[in-house]
Amino acid sequence: MSAQPVRQPHADRHAGWLELFFDLVFVAFAAQLSHSLHGDPGPRDFAVFLALYFPPWWMWINLTVSANLFEDDSPRRRLLMLSAMFCLAAMAAAVPEADGDAGRAAVYALGYAGTRLVLLGLWWPATRLPAALRVPRWRPLSYCLVSALLWAASAAVPLPWRYAVWAVLLTAEMVLLLTARGHGITGRLHTGHLVERVGLFVIIVLGESVIALVTSTDHAWTAQAGAVATLGFVLLAALWWSYFDFGSTSAELMLGSAEGSRAYLLARDVSGFLHFFVTAAVISMAAGLATAVEEAGHAHLPRGAVWALAGGLALYHLAHACIAVRFGRPLRAVAVWAVPGIAVPLLVVLGAGTLAPWLVVLLLAAEAVGHLLYARTLARRRSR
């Protein structure tokens, strides 16, 4: 059965069972990446984390958009998505030491190449749609097939040149995407479905943070560890509350009110690019929280752990500030909550050598709760 164009944006549509099953592989990805920042990570560890996280995120958003545009539950599509899930699972398994082990790096590259071939299979039926919706054949051939072949060939490139090749290939993919202006089928996104899918991904990374809090108590079953874990849970609960009451709701309203290519461009920038930093920040915080629980009895946290935790929260607020500006919010209004949201965690980083683990998490939790209370107060004023 060939893919069909999506329903009109007002139609009620939610994530399917296949999409939810597919997302489970990113639970493993989040755990692997978070573990890479455990303890006292340095600048190189953070760079490797971002470099290894972007390709699977990029593929997830590409596959999510294809599912958004084409309502197709045929066995063909199911097999393609399950194949992508297997490829991503192989990439997740290769994450540990992928920056130094040639064999793991090769598996990572070949796994990503496989996902590009899956994407080609998903998009190819769109080249046979009516003229108004048809995708030119050169786009999936260059964006998917050529990219897949080059990624597979990169497995034979020696380290560290292989990583330079990956960077060039990812840049080329983004350039191809940026040249698509949202005409034809790419201008028919179902925005509600897309917002829901991105929100479910945020739930995955928040869930990894909760898992990190729970499992870290295995190594530190003390009253201090329990207090730090409790404060960490308050921090995550406040982030969840503010994201789904305000961030996600605002995104659905803004994207839903946009039309044609503007809706596509907003969705591309907010969901595709800026939410990479939102989710990366939460994964980083998961690692920092786990370390804080395990180090609860120490005088202070390692500086790298404070950067993972407090720096992650600062990045989280910065990404949301950029999203608000991209939606057209006045810069002055955004700065009211963004400046303290970024400044407080960075001040915590400055005190990393003197602050006890419980105090670090307490200050960050207080900032997150204060941010939530401010947003709720502002919402009540606007409603009146």
From TrEMBL:
Keywords linked to the UniProt accession: Membrane, Transmembrane, Transmembrane helix
Organism of this sequence: Streptomyces virginiae
Bilayer-crossing regions: 16-34, 46-67, 79-95, 107-126, 138-157, 163-182, 194-215, 221-244, 272-293, 305-327, 334-352, 358-375
Classification via InterPro entries: Low_temperature_requirement_A (IPR010640)
Protein name listed in UniProt: Low temperature requirement protein A
